[in-house]
Amino acid sequence: MSSPLKAAFIFIAPGGDPAKHRNWVRTPGVELLAVAVGDYAQAEALARDLVDNEGVAAIELCGGFGAAGTARVAAAVDVPVGVVRFDIHPGLNNVSGDALFG
Asked: 90 FRET partner, CA 20 to 30 A, in 63, 65, 66, 76?
């Protein structure tokens, strides 16, 4: 059997601290690290660190990332970056992350 895909799910939330707010879910096919960040700059730095130091091969971003935030993270790494889409996010008072963090 081949090695599982090592992936990350990054979500943005006020007060998110990637050093504290993180957890692994491991299945035979995927090892997924869920991590909270507080802004787009943290997400960019985290994505680079996960790819360079933890072997993450794919990143998915939560719907709180708007188009600008998604582009910033995607430009920071050389692995596939996907995104869950919300034009207005219920966890961010029904606005896009671009309005808050862009």
From this structure: 76
Could you tell me the pTM of the whole model? Answer: 0.85
Residue whose tokens read 């997924």: 32
Chain CA centroid to CA 15, Å: 15
Q: Give yes or no for residue 60 having a pLDDT over 60.
A: yes
Strand partners, 8: 33, 59
Fold of the domain spanning 5-101: Rossmann fold (3.40.50)
pLDDT band at 93 (very low <50, low <70, confident <90, very high): confident
Chain centroid to CA 8: 6
CB atoms within 10 A of CB 24: 11
